[in-house]
C-alpha cells in the first residue's frame, strides 16, 4: 500500500487528487496540507511514501517544504506539482531533494502512474519533458559545471551509464544500450549513485547536466 500526503493550497485540487488516489487498490491518502508548514509536520508524523507537493503555498513554499521533508526522512519521495509557466521551480525542487515532477494539468491517470513510478524509486516522471526543462534551466541558471568533481570519480563505463540515466533510460534500456544483462546495469547504476552521493535518478540527472555530460536540448 502506497501512503500519500497531498500538499496544495487549493481545496478542490486536494479533493480531486484524493478521490482518484483513494480509488486505487494500492494507494491510500493519509493526510492533506494547505500550506508548506503543515505539510512538513504531517510528513514527520505520518511518514508517507509519497508527497504530492505544490510549489506555491502560503507560510512555506513547496521547495523549502521539500527540502525539510527530505532532510527529516530520506525514504520519502516528493513529487513536485508544477505548470509550464513556472518551469524554473523544477530544478529548484530537484535540488531540494524531490524525486520528480508532474504538470498540474496532467490527466488524472497520469497522476496515478506518477505516484507508482516515484514510489518504486524511478525518480523521473515523463523523462523526455523533464530533460528538456532541466536542460534549459541548467543552461540559463546553473553555475559552471559544478558537477565535474563528482563525475571525475566515475569509471568510463559508469560515466556512460550516467549519460544514459540523464537521457531518461530505465535499467532495462541501459542494459540493452550497453549490451549487458539488466542486473549488471542495475549494479552500475547503484555504484554511480554511491559515488555521486545521490539518492535517485533525479539528482543523478542534475549532476550530469551540471557536469556537462549532457548538452541541453539534445538526446545524446
UniProtKB/TrEMBL annotation:
The biological process GO terms on file are:
phosphorelay signal transduction system; regulation of DNA-templated transcription
Q: Which residues form a coiled coil?
A: none
Q: Which residues carry this modification: 4-aspartylphosphate?
A: 54
Residues in Response regulatory domain copies: 3-119
- Keyword line: DNA-binding, Phosphoprotein, Transcription, Transcription regulation
Q: Which PROSITE patterns match?
A: HTH_LUXR_2, RESPONSE_REGULATORY
Residues annotated as domain HTH luxR-type: 147-212
Q: What is this protein called?
A: DNA-binding response regulator
Record the organism. Amycolatopsis thailandensis
Amino acid at each position: 500500500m502506497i501512503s500519500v500526503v497531498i500538499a496544495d493550497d487549493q481545496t478542490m485540487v486536494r479533493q480531486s487528487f484524493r478521490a482518484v488516489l483513494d480509488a486505487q487498490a494500492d494507494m491510500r491518502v493519509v493526510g492533506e496540507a494547505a500550506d508548506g508548514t503543515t505539510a512538513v509536520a504531517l510528513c514527520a508524523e505520518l511518514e508517507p511514501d509519497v508527497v504530492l507537493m505544490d510549489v506555491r503555498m502560503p507560510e512555506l513554499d513547496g521547495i523549502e517544504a521539500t527540502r525539510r521533508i527530505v532532510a527529516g526522512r530520506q525514504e520519502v519521495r516528493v513529487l513536485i506539482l508544477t505548470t509550464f509557466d513556472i518551469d524554473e521551480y523544477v530544478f529548484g525542487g530537484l535540488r531540494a531533494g524531490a524525486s520528480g515532477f508532474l504538470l498540474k494539468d496532467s490527466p488524472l491517470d497520469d497522476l496515478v502512474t506518477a505516484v507508482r513510478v516515484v514510489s518504486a524509486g524511478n525518480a523521473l516522471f515523463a523523462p523526455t519533458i523533464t530533460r528538456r526543462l532541466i536542460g534549459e534551466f541548467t543552461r540559463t541558471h546553473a553555475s559552471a559545471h559544478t558537477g565535474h568533481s563528482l563525475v571525475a570519480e566515475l569509471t568510463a563505463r559508469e560515466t556512460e551509464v550516467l549519460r544514459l540515466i540523464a537521457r531518461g533510460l530505465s535499467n532495462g534500456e541501459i542494459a540493452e544500450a550497453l549490451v549487458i544483462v539488466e542486473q549488471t546495469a542495475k549494479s552500475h547504476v547503484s555504484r554511480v549513485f554511491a559515488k555521486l552521493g545521490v539518492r535517485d535518478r533525479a539528482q543523478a540527472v542534475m549532476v550530469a547536466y551540471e557536469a556537462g555530460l549532457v548538452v541541453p536540448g539534445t538526446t545524446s
